[in-house]
Queue: 2 jobs
Job 1
Amino acid sequence: MKYQVDANGFYGNYGGSYVPEILYKTVEDLKEAYLPIIESDEFKQEFHTLLRDYVGRPSPLYFARRMSERYGCHLYLKREDLNHTGAHKINNSLGQILIAKKMGKTRIIAETGAGQHGVATATACALMDMPCTVYMGATDVERQRPNVERMKMLGAEVCPVYSGNKTLKDATNEAIRDWCCHPSDTFYIIGSTVGPHPYPDLVARLQSVISEELKWQLEEKTGRTWPDYLIACVGGGSNAAGTIYHFLDNENVRIVLAEAGGKGIDTYMTAASMEIGTTGILHGSRIKLMQTDDGQIVEPYSISAGLDYPGTGPIHCHLYESGRARVLAVNDDEALAAALELTRTEGIIPALESAHALGVLPKMKFNPDDVVVLTVSGRGDKDMITYLKYFNG
Ligand SMILES: *Cc1c(COP(=O)(O)O)cnc(C)c1O
């Protein structure tokens, strides 16, 4: 239990709920409501039926034979890339929209970076017939065109944000501003294990279906319910949190997290906030973030829009600080090489975010009988323009 959230919403020194007065009651209401709802039989039934029949779960656990030979271990890939809408984000959006409906909310807002969370939320809103507004940095609107068109076709209103770096942090600020104006009727579907308590815990629980499935899938394939290693990429931390959730208290399971090194952690063109960040408060939570000495946010950089955030959620800050998880920065070029390697050895084109998890493999030294599970958080369709630019000169 020592890695789970405490009664005050903290993971060790991180987390909490730092919200403006006007949102206090809204966040408090969610805090009261979320556990009774997600533990109810009615919710479990609805959520799991959707995950099975709509998302296509369980996602396969695939033994990657050629990659295993290359890295001298038994490498299994958890295929979140095969989910409806192409990533793990849909698990969370469907869970939160069910909660929103049960709380009587009538309008959904969301922020998005690469557009994956925006698409997942617009999808959930189309399915549930709820109006949907998605905030997205103007830079991301430009570099993620296909996802913008998908959201619009799904019926969502996409609002470009022109402040700051015009990326995920700025989109999140704008979503919070909207929420402050409509706290009673609007549900804010946050896309990762970030934001004020209870969001990190809520999102981790909704994504924990990943590790729930891993237990029986591993038993089927290896005769044991746990692996020696779990590897995942970390932006805000939701696919990683879902991957490790049911293994946190099993110290035989080593956890390795990949954050975006960008052009290198000593270049300032980076998003490796656990490694170079310091403690501060952003978007309602105390986390490790990239900031100047007087607390101004340093703009992050990563080739991957989904990892381009100046902080990391409180769960992973605590796992890093306590030594439970090892964190490695994977740079742009290492992620690109890893994406091409997976494509050519296994015929799977991963999302750029997931390619950062794959970029961990060359940095590791495994024993030949180690069972390694790596979560492929999403597929690479949305990143084809970037891949083409680098691989075709
Ligand atoms: C959004 C996204 C991520 C990063 O978000 P987490 O909350 O850290 O999981 C990683 N991979 C893909 C494919 C994404 O869309």
Job 2
Amino acid sequence: MSTPQPRANVAEIPPYVAGKPPTVRPGMTSYKLSSNENPYPPLPGVIEAVQAGVGAMNRYPDMGSAALYAALAETFDVPAGHLSVATGSVGLIYQLVQAFCDPGDEVVFAWRSFEAYPIAVTAAAATAVKVPVLADGRHDLDAMAAAITDRTKVVLVCTPNNPTGPAVSQSELDAFLARVPSHVLVVVDEAYVEFVRMTDPVDGIATYRSHQNVVLTRTFSKAYGLAGFRVGYAVAPAPIAAALRAVSLPFGVSTVAQAAAIASLERRAELFERVDSLVAERTRVVEALRGVGWDVPEAQGNFVWFELGDRTLDFAAAADEAGIVVRPFAGEGCRVSIGETEANDRLVAVAAAFTR
Ligand SMILES: *Cc1c(COP(=O)(O)O)cnc(C)c1O
């Protein structure tokens, strides 16, 4: 008897491996450093804004997310028609591939990079073209430009790169964009943009303003600490933003998520003090790791990358023993989020004691 069959690409979709929760150890606080979450609890005022929305849960959310669009437009000084909000920036990546790729079209991205990329690309029956990152964890933008063919529709640039950590500079991005044909969409995934502290950082807004084929994707999940609420936004020229909105899930961004995002935009100054503290912790951790001999790549996000090869799972187990859960990529390395000071201290201790 024949049964309904999904498209062949569905069986090829790689699984998303979510960061594990910490192992509960009696008498010891455990920390989750496996999902690049923000360790701070919601700011006062954000919870109250959400509570006001809770009472309206019998109603659909504002489908047009009008207040959120207005707040984003004002914050970033862009027209509301150049924005598209979605259920996290993962939602935006899916929508971009869906809107711009026919089956078999190619999407070029660095690898290892964000694990949702091959999932979104394969789900759309497009073809993933993975360009290895350089030894120091940076995008190989020359090789990525060279990988563009007449089947290429989209290039994803993840900066800072999850999980390796370095960010692309503006001059590197400009040189790359000059080599990309104007019909190829360049997605600049800026999930960690608020954590970048480097010379010549990318100015995403200026870059999208000067290119017809550039879209920025950003999220409230990391710096803003709203990972549980699923809100992201894209900034793009009007036709691209319109295509994104056309394929978006109706009512995807819930009432409470809209309220939390708006309240968080209003409290950016306070939130960014927290980001500064996390960046200071990142600097402290990276210096301590280098001080005990670890050659960790430049860390521009809220996480650090340990290249460990076949010692990856041993390192993850050692961290687990110390009450911190990290994100291992078997055979490659571990990504560890910057978290509470105590958690970061434990990470440094684990790394110092670990024999490679
Ligand atoms: C966390 C992350 C995202 C954002 O995820 P959300 O869906 O917005 O929670 C996007 N891109 C990268 C590279 C990330 O690490």
